[in-house]
Specification:
Helix 2 packs across helix 4 (88-152) and helix 4 runs antiparallel to helix 7 (201-259). This protein is 80% helix and 0% strand. It has one domain. The chain is built from 7 helices and no strands.
Amino acid sequence: MKATNSLPTAPFILRIVGIILILSALVDYISLLIPPNFSDKAWFANVVTQFVDRGIIPMVGLGFLALSAFLEAGSLALGDRAKPFTTFRFWALLLSLLLGLVFLIAFPLHLNNTRQVSDQALERIDRESRDAETQLNAQVQQRQDQISAALRDPNQAKQLDDQLRQIDAAIASGQLKGDQLTQAQRAQKELQALKANPGSVADRAKEFRNQQLTQLRERRQQAESQARGEFWKTGVRVGISSLLLSLGYFLIGWSGLKEMGILGGKRKPVMR
């Protein structure tokens, strides 16, 4: 049996794969825009990110179409009698220029939009941190006033003595071990300090407030660093990728249409 030459079917297969890749990418892009919400900066940033991340798929499809044309005729040029506007190749190359324009426009828009999203996140973090500090100061002051009033009350002072005796008895019994013993000893020292010096409530409240403020400000710095890092991670990466995709699509569309004789010059002869 003679081996059959499968080369004539290769351009057809490449053309089908290229068309499917391009059309599926366009359907995917349209689905990302539904429902549109361009006033939402976070939505817009997410859409542009997904656009750019999937931007290579149509380019691969265009590559398959170009390879199919080369295998058929040795170039992208059309015959002298062929009308370029009636060929899928022409519209694919025109789509390449359109995608190049879209990704070029997306480059500055995405950088500016991501910066605004980052600024909004920083403002929200600052507002939440200030609210948390205000709430902490109010709670500490309220608790300080309650403890001070309780220490001036004879009944509350008697309860303090009872609590201290119970803790002393529990420690002396040897029943407390590990963390329980450590917590009991800490509570014992705090109650003894309050009993010996009721005026130390303000100092202890200030110390507690400073500890909590330090933790709040550390969390704020971490959140701000994460917001800035997200800007550089998504904004700059996606922006540069969008610019590179734009350049690639422009080169593909321009060179293809030029070889077809549409962007000036004579059509290149088709290899037979």
